[in-house]
Write a structure and sequence with these properties.
With about 150 residues, this protein is α/β, with parallel strands linked by helices. It has a single domain, classed as Cytidine Deaminase, domain 2. It has an eight-stranded mixed beta sheet. About 30% of the residues are buried. The C terminus is likely disordered.
């Protein structure tokens, strides 16, 4: 499946990743599910990982519930999770794979010296291994109704 990410959503992910550097940031992205997944907005969440957040992130279950609620209230689909890899490639780690859900897309932002340098998307296959998911930045002609970020 292909992912189309609004330029605004991608800019917001990059801004969040750079602001949280040298720690990993995390959040959700929402949009419309179809032949192509269209990412329209993001929901930043705080990295709930106890201890060193430079190499791990954790999402609080309450944040997940709030993202699901937001999606329902705004007629959107919760499409996936984004997070950053400070000073590491935009490739999923074994830990990323072990906590991933098969229906989500996972956008990983590589930061080099605090600046977003590479962004890639991944999805689990039937063998629970990550495969890269093609994505492109796109401008959408209209935003979903009732969108209050």
């Amino acid at each position: 499946m292909k992912l189309e990410v609004s330029s605004e959503a991608l800019q917001n992910m990059h801004r969040h990743a750079e602001a949280d550097y040298p720690n990993e940031c995390c959040g959700f992205f929402l949009g419309l599910e179809g032949d192509v997944r269209q990412v329209r907005v993001i929901r930043e969440v705080e990295n709930a990982k106890e201890g060193d957040q430079r190499r791990r992130f954790q999402i609080d279950p309450k944040d997940y519930q709030q993202a699901e609620k937001y999606a329902i209230e705004h007629d959107l689909d919760l499409l996936g999770v984004y997070h950053s890899h400070p000073d590491h490639p935009a490739e999923p780690s074994e830990h990323d794979r072990s906590v991933a859900m098969p229906w989500f897309s996972y956008i990983i932002i590589s930061l080099q010296d605090g600046k977003a340098s590479n962004t890639r998307s991944w999805r689990l296959n039937d063998e629970r291994q990550f495969e890269e998911e093609p994505f492109e930045t796109k401008e959408f002609s209209s935003q979903p109704k009732n969108l209050d970020i």
